[in-house]
Structures are given as C-alpha cells and as structure tokens.
Amino acid sequence: MKYGEEVILQNQLEVWENSFSDKDYKIHIEFSEFTCLCPHSGYPDFATIKITYIPDRHVVELKSLKLFLNKYRACYISHENATNEIFDALYNILKPKYLQVVGDFNPRGNVKTVVEVNSEMLRRKDE
Questions:
Q1: Is 94 left (phi over 0), alpha (psi -120 to 50) or beta?
Q2: Is 75 one of the catalytic residues?
Q3: Options 3.30.1130.10, 2.40.110.20, 3.40.50.20, 1.10.275.10; CATH of 3-126
C-alpha cells in the first residue's frame, strides 16, 4: 500500500473552533476531483462535491475533509448514497446551523445526476 493510501484510510474528519460563532456566515467548499465506483458496473464516476454551511461552534479542517472525500475513490457506492453519507458525516461532526451537500456528477452514458441534501429538508421530515 502506498503512503497516501494509508493516510486516506487512517484519516478522521477534524474540526476547529469557530472563532466567530457570534455571527452567521456561509462557507462554500468545492471538491472538483471526487471519484467513486458504480456499485453495479464498477465503472468510475466523477463529480464535484459542493458543500455550503453556516457554522455554529465548529468549522471543518480542510485537509481532513480532502482526505475524507478521497476515501471514496475505491468505494462501490451510488451517487445518492455517496452524497448522503458525506452530508451525514459533516452534519454529525459539525452540528452546523445549516448544511447543504450537492453531488454534481459528470454525465455517464448521456445521463447526468445531481443529488442535493440539506438540513432544511431534515426539518421538514421531522415535522
């Protein structure tokens, strides 16, 4: 196993204290080199993962996020499951005021998929 693969496997999402938790502000992160594998065919899927959140007490440490997203390179996972797993991991560790994760997948076989999950959708489900 290469050293980079080991680092990816051992990585845990990290958070930092939000120094400006007294005000609301948005953070936008784009990860344009996301890859995973189709669970049916094994073909690679490519996407841009777009994360927008309003932090509460914590912000995500970017290197740990990059390594966390890179772990999907060898995962056989659907577009929907990948996007939801990323959302759940960030939501659980950050406990943000608002979170949106968009998986904007490149077309394959002339089919384009965009999966969006946000915390406002969670609130409607609970009502």
A1: alpha
A2: no
A3: 3.30.1130.10
